[in-house]
Structures are given as C-alpha cells and as structure tokens.
Design brief:
Layout lengths: L1 H16 L6 E5 L10 H8 L3 H7 L13 E5 L9 E7 L12 H6 L2 E6 L8 H18 L2 E11 L1 H12 L6 E5 L8 E2 L7 E2 L8 H9 L2 E7 L5 H14 L5 E6 L9 H11 L3
C-alpha cells in the first residue's frame, strides 16, 4: 500500500514537470524556484542591503512557488519536436494572461508565453522579478524552450520590471520589450532642460553582465505618441543610443495612441526587433 502510494506520488510529481498535452490558454503551477531569483541573488545584482529589504518586507522576499498560479499559452501546433521561444509577460494588473491580441503573432512566431498571477504593480519589485524568473525555470522543465529566444515583456509598471530583468539578467533573457514604461540605471537628461534629469532607478549591472546586456541582448521600447510616459521613454532611448553602446536597441512609437498596450501589429514589430533573426 505504501509502495503504491509512493509510486503514485512520484508519477504525479513527474507529470507536473512535463508537457501534459494541453494547448491554448492553460493554468500552470511549478515546483521549483529559479536559482537566480533568490533574494540573495537579487540583492547581489541590485545591491540591496538586508536592512532595506527587512524594512520594506517582513517576509524578506520569501515565498513558496507552488502557491503561485501562472497563465500559460501553448500554440496548437507545439509538439515538443523543436524548441520554441518563450515570452515571459509581466502585467501591471492581477492576471498573468498575455493580451489576446498577441496570441496569433506568438503562435506564428513559434513562441510559448507565460505570466504570473498577482504580480501587478501593487507587489514589491523582488516578488515580480522572482515570479518572472520562476516562470522561465518552470517552463524550461515542462516544454522544449530555445535558450536563445527567451524574452521578457511588460506594460506600464510591468515594463519597468521587465527592464530591470532585461538589463540585469542577460544570462536568463536574450531580450526585453518595455512597453509604455521603462526605467534605467543612470540619470536621463530631460529634452527641455539638459541640466535637469529623471533620476536613476537602480544600479548599473556588474561588468560581466553589462557586457552581455550591451553586446548580445536585444531591447525594444514601445510607447504611444500621446502616452504620458512618452517623453521619458524617448529620452531614455536617445540616451542609451548615444552613451551606452548597445548593439541591439530599437524605439517604436505608436501614432495617435495614449497609454495602451500594443495591438497585434505593433506587438509583431516589437517581437521581430527583439527576437533572434
């Protein structure tokens, strides 16, 4: 009896790590955290002090990944015979579902997608980054993922988090899409008065990671022409292009649009810019 129960539990654990055949929109749960998502690793990369973390979060960034729900998107033609790209989505809201307008583009481009629920703007930054990294780890265990095509994307406040990951985790993400919102590691001068600047929001990556970010990673900033964040996003792009020696950087401005997520056509342009040719 005990032996049979043990085999059943083993089979259940194994099934949770492998593709179960579901396609389309699926809810997923994972059993392991990404080793690079720990508070110790995040603190190392972003130079957070223990007192700062403890002051802002009594849980100190600790959580059980098995308690999290992830919203996945698996194209109908995915069969595991070839690796697909992976888009990790960081929403400003409570649902981790990737916008429906992007589904056709993702399928055509041979991408799976995943986003964590309850990872919106109200969560502390280290949870949102941790959940996104956990999504990569869990999806790689369950599906055939191309390591050269792992992209992080976020809109508004999610774009700010996606930027932190795209810049500081080039060893995990090969590119980033920062939509309607972004942050950077240095002050960004204002176009109207170069003596004034938007302040840096996080430290520069360590030298080895910085080299990868500048030389290998692909970064695309997308913003509406009438978006309240447009002035900063455009200035950030111009600053990076002039000062930071990024080899793969693109700016896309959506005419006559405000603070909105890209539709399918604009998303496809962004994905082409950030995906490996």
């Amino acid at each position: 009896m005990t032996w049979s129960l043990g085999l059943w539990l083993l089979a259940l654990a194994f099934s949770q790590e492998k593709d179960d055949g579901r396609r389309g929109a699926v809810q997923l749960r994972f059993r392991e955290r990404h080793p690079l998502g720990s508070m110790a690793e995040q603190s190392k990369r972003f130079r957070w002090k223990e007192d700062f973390v403890r002051k802002n979060d009594p849980d100190r960034g600790e959580y059980r990944v098995g308690d999290l729900a992830f919203q996945g998107l698996v194209p109908a033609d995915y069969d595991g015979s070839r690796p697909y790209g992976l888009l990790v989505w960081i929403s400003p809201g409570s649902s981790g579902r990737v916008p429906a307008a992007w589904h056709e583009v993702l399928a055509k481009s041979k991408f799976l997608a995943v986003g964590a629920d309850n990872s919106g703007n109200e969560r502390l930054v280290w949870y949102r980054m941790g959940f996104a990294l956990d999504a990569v780890h869990g999806m790689k265990k369950r599906y055939s993922i191309d390591d050269k095509r792992i992209v992080v994307a976020g809109f508004s406040g999610g774009g700010r988090i996606a930027g932190r990951l795209g810049f500081h985790y080039p060893d995990v993400f090969t590119g980033g899409m920062y939509l309607g919102g972004a942050d950077f590691w240095s002050d960004i001068p204002t176009p109207s008065d170069p003596k004034r600047a938007w302040p840096a929001q996080f430290p520069k990556p360590a030298d080895k990671l910085l080299e990868q970010t500048r030389k290998k990673s692909r970064h695309v900033l997308v913003v509406g022409e009438r978006d309240m964040n447009r002035a900063f996003v455009k200035a950030m792009h111009d600053h990076i292009a002039a000062k930071e020696k990024f080899e793969h950087l693109k700016y896309l401005e959506m005419p006559d649009l405000g603070h909105v997520s890209p539709d399918g056509a604009w998303f496809e342009k962004a994905l082409r810019a950030v995906d490996v040719p």
